[in-house]
Design brief:
Rossmann fold, four-stranded parallel beta sheet, alpha/beta
Length: about 325
């Protein structure tokens, strides 16, 4: 099936600007706030994508991708594969378009994410992480019909995420580095496509958890890799089992380096945002701050993208205790 896909091509700045206009009435232009940490820490600003209507950045890409589907494809209904945030984004966009939505969802996703997808009208098909990851590669799942919207390897999805890069440059013109968590690679590709087109000197860093860091391994090896020691963790919105070759082709010319952080560092970043800025972040949303605090992204100004805040509150309190 992959042989029928359009070849990977760069996301053009004009496509990102068009996407920004297209999704303007659906998304929130999220704030960028300084995290006051003191002189011994890097200068970090937080891009609060946890404040989107679905509490995650995925709405940007989903809204653009669904809006750009030809009418016959939209009428068939849409479906996607998700640990929660992409599913919410596609379900939200589908509801606005008045079309049915199915999500092949990872059964271990936080209940808050599963419940929100159902509330948005999505039909859920629960599967294991392994099954979902294979379906992402196959772009098919038995018994699920409609038009497939890939949650990261989709040109229009990625262009929607690029709108965030434009906002960052407007709100932090002095930024020297941007850190984004990596799951499939769509977020960092979109943001970097916008930023590098306008300010190529700004460094782009990917952040991954130690339990699932295929992009960092791929960067080290120079080719897309499978992460053989993959382990499930509370960082369910980032850290894949592998880097898809098509996504590696997209990321390779745009991302300057990758930072791997421990689960303890991620928990500390979640707690720090809660204490100092009253921000509730899921694990994947805290990875960029954790990476920035290692010092590997420089002294700043650094923009850390808080990609989402969809986490069960009981679990959140356990993690930051």
């Amino acid at each position: 099936m992959a042989a029928t896909l359009d070849p990977v091509r760069p996301i053009k700045l004009d496509e990102i600007k068009d996407a920004r206009q297209r999704i303007a009435k659906t998304i929130v232009r999220t704030p960028l706030v300084r995290l006051e940490l003191g002189p011994d820490f890097p200068d970090v600003r937080l891009k609060l994508e946890n404040l989107q209507p679905i509490n995650a950045y995925k709405l940007r890409g989903a809204a653009n991708a669904v809006a750009m589907l030809p009418e016959p494809e939209r009428k068939r209904g849409v479906w996607t594969i998700s640990a929660g945030n992409a599913g919410q984004g596609v379900a939200y966009a589908a509801r606005q378009a008045g079309v049915p939505c199915t999500v092949v969802a990872i059964e271990t996703a936080p209940e808050s994410k599963l419940a929100r997808m159902r509330e948005l009208g999505a039909r859920l098909v629960l599967v294991s992480y392994d099954v979902a990851w294979k379906a992402l590669d196959d772009r098919a799942f038995p018994g699920v019909d409609g038009t497939f919207v890939h949650p990261f390897d989709d040109h229009n999805f990625i262009a929607g995420h690029g709108s965030m890069g434009l906002e960052i440059l407007e709100d932090a013109p002095d930024v020297k580095a941007i850190v984004a968590s990596i799951g499939g690679g769509g977020l960092i590709t979109g943001v970097a496509s916008a930023v590098k087109a306008i300010r190529p000197e700004i460094k782009i860093f990917g952040a991954e958890p130690e339990t699932a860091a295929p992009a960092a391994l791929s960067f080290e090896k120079g080719s897309p890799q499978v992460f053989k020691d993959w382990k499930a963790s509370f960082v369910d919105g980032a850290g894949g089992q592998s880097v898809f070759p098509r996504m590696w082709e997209r990321m390779k010319p745009l991302v300057d380096d990758y930072i791997v952080v421990t689960l303890d560092e991620t928990k500390k970043a979640m707690r720090m945002m809660a204490e100092k800025a009253r921000i509730i972040s899921e694990g994947a949303g805290a990875l960029p701050l954790a990476a920035a605090l290692t010092g590997k992204a420089g002294k700043g100004p650094i923009v850390a993208i808080v990609s989402g805040g969809n986490i069960d509150l009981k679990k959140f309190f356990e993690l930051i205790a």
